[in-house]
Structures are given as C-alpha cells and as structure tokens.
Design a protein that fits this description.
Blueprint lengths: L5 H14 L3 H7 L4 E7 L5 H5 L4 E7 L2 H10 L4 E3 L11 E5 L8 H10 L4 E9 L5 E5 L2 E5 L2 H6 L4 E8 L4 H8 L8 E9 L3
Parallel strand pairs: 1-2, 1-4, 2-3, 4-5
Antiparallel strand pairs: 5-9, 6-7, 8-9
The structure holds S-adenosylmethionine.
S-adenosylmethionine (SAM) binds next to loops.
C-alpha cells in the first residue's frame, strides 16, 4: 500500500477540480477562513491543497497503515486510526470515495453528528434504490447505500444538494463482481447542520 505523494497532489487536485469533485466543499467553505476539517479516509492532504487560501487545521482518519505512511510524509496533518478517537468538534467533516469501506454506517454517522460540524460533505458515494447491502472489492467489504439510510441517520442535518457524479459504471460493477446492469449511482452531496 502506498500513499499519495506531496509532489503529486497538485495535479490530482487540479484534475479533480476540473471534473467537479470538490464543488460542494468549495461551496461550504466559501464564507469560512479558519477551518478545522476532518477528512475520513482522506489519505493525504488534498483538502489543504484545494483550500490554499484558507487557514486549515486538517485531521485525517484512515487505516493504520495509511496513517503510518501519512505521519511520516505529512507532519502538518494529525492522523487518527480510529474514528472513535477523533476530536469532539470540527467545522467540516468530509469523505471522498471512502464511506463504502466504513464498518458501520450508523456508528460513522453518529460520530459525524456528535462532532457538530457546520457541514458534512460526501463525495463518491455509491448508492442503490434497493436496501443498503455489502459486496466485496477483492476481499474488502464494500457497502452500497440507500440514500434514505444516510439521511435518516443524520437527524440534525439537512440535505442541501445532491449531484450524480458520472463514473464508469461498467468498470465499477466488474471491480465489485456485480452484474453489468446493476443499477448503481455515484453521488456527491452535502448536508448543513440544522442546529447551528
Ligand atoms: C479510494 S481511496 C480515497 C482517498 C482519498 N479520500 C482521496 O480522495 O484521494 C479510499 C481511502 O479510504 C481508506 N479506507 C479504507 N478503509 C477504511 C476504513 N475502514 N476506515 C477509514 N478509511 C478507510 C483507504 O485507506 C483510502 O485512503
């Protein structure tokens, strides 16, 4: 397992920006200057690079191996191996292409909510109209969510915008060993805290 290197972040972020990956995060941070962000499954500080003109405190929660690599490469970031050990307060919690790997959606969203962020920004979440289910990517469990389960587990938050993000669905179903025509949608979306 490797980690995204510092020298590669600029081009990756530019490429993703052009594809609209970060539209919601840019929208949520436009009126904030000092921002404490938790990036779940964040790997490397792409978020800091994206929000160059802001003062960012970045915490990343990731797998132990990734945290080990990250701590050596990115000393400015605080890494956490366990979501239950993150700080109790953030301005923004985000996740890109990582929600599918979380062991428990309910516990994950309960922790997100308990940190009382202003915004929750989700990117590259694979969804189904059927019930939430778990498949596998290789031997790794991979969860496909019904949006209702996400919304219902965030009672303090209001879903503000949801956009389908076009990906290669044939490649995804093949990677997950699913039928080619399995109806999946990849969404980017964000919630605003109703209690603030
Ligand atoms: C597809 S990568 C996305 C990385 C990063 N969010 C980005 O946008 O470049 C998935 C990330 O989720 C992390 N991940 C996998 N399983 C995880 C888990 N159970 N808890 C937290 N992070 C996990 C991986 O280590 C990896 O960093």
């Amino acid at each position: 397992m490797g980690i995204l290197r510092r020298g590669a972040i600029d081009s990756i972020v530019k490429y993703r920006l052009a594809l609209g990956w970060y539209d919601h995060l840019i929208e949520c941070t436009k009126d904030l200057d000092d921002i404490k962000i938790l990036d779940v499954g964040g790997e490397a500080p792409t978020v800091t690079h994206l929000l160059k003109d802001k003062k960012i405190i970045l915490h990343i929660m990731d797998l132990p191996e990734m945290c080990g690599l990250g701590k050596r490469e990115y000393t400015e970031v605080k890494y956490f191996e366990d979501l239950r050990l993150v700080d109790t307060s953030y301005d923004i919690i985000t996740n890109y292409a990582s929600l599918m790997y979380m062991d428990s959606l309910e516990e994950t969203l309960e922790i997100f909510q308990s940190c009382n962020p202003k915004y929750l920004v989700f990117g590259h979440v694979i969804t189904t109209k059927e019930e939430t289910y778990t498949t596998e990517q290789g031997k790794t469990p991979y969860r496909i969510y019904n949006m209702t389960d996400i919304i219902e587990n965030l009672p303090n938050f209001e879903l503000i915008e949801q956009k389908e993000y076009p990906i290669n669905y044939d490649r995804l179903t093949s990677k997950l060993g699913l039928e080619v025509d399995t109806p999946l949608k990849c969404f980017n979306f964000y919630f605003r805290n109703k209690t603030i």
